[in-house]
Predict the 3D structure of the following.
Amino acid sequence: MTRLTIDRRGLVLAGLAIAAAPHAPALAQKRKELVLAFIPQENPEKLQGDIKVISAWLAKEIGVPVRGFVGSDHAAAVEALRNGDADISFMGALPYVIANAQTGAIAVLAEVYRGSPTYTGRIFVRRDGAIEKLADLKGKAIAFADPISESGYLYPLDIFVENGLLQRGEDPKRFFGKVYFAGGYQQAMQAMQAGLVDAAGVSQYADLLLTPVQQPQVKWIAESKPIPSHVVIARKDLDPTLKAKF
């Protein structure tokens, strides 16, 4: 499996063009288009614009029409791969394990982001708020991204277990007043920054999805253990000559 260094996670799909270009004719004969399933880690409207740019560029490189869509969450992307409604997706390690077990999808590229094959989950709060430590969130509201996201739920939640505030497997509502799944990193961060919730449990890079004005208004108070980075996965019956080049 190839490791690819990138500056922005969305652009990891650019690596597909390098592998796909030599096999464009064969791919075109087997499918009329290549379909990419995206996860809504940022504002869906902005992501739609990014998808158009990536799809147009990739289509030009491989000589096959490319169409992208935003699934409602990781589970929707896995289901799209299972049903043949998507050929390629970009997701975290746990959703990939689920996709592999349920659909036979394989990882074709692994991400190295900012020089590291791992990243972390963090607990973000408003800088001008009263929350200074994890214990201050007792009875408060927290927003996560997605229930099967490592950095958007599982690892941030584990921070509270590691600090003795929750038991492993315990209902988070035994500690928090309310628990929300916002549908993406950006949505969770914006809910916290706007005061709709008291904290956000998301990726260490999620604050970069806020505006330059909003970023200084938030801070993180705790960090998880390292998380294996994201992967680009392909459905199991995608053109084997194409997959072999990754």
